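Following up on my earlier thread - several people asked me to post the actual chain instead of describing it. Fair enough. Here it is, all 73 residues.
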Amino acid sequence: MITKELLIREIDRLDAGYWEVLYKIIKAFESPIKVHGGKSEWLKFINETYGCLADNPIERGEQGTYEIREDFR
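Reply from S.P.:
Thanks for posting it. Predicted structure:
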């Protein structure tokens, strides 16, 4: 179970460069999504922050092959 204390410990370990993004995520859960001119606040947030991994994008590596240790047929 995730507790408030566990979250606080993880936040304490987090690099300060991510604090602003984390703060925005937390604030996004405080109130329902508001729609302004067809765009939600959440969409606006995503558009502002999705580029944080532009210099180090997440990539899926090759699946690879695994040794079959036992045949259970």
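The helical segments are 4-13, 19-28, 41-49. That should answer part of your original question.
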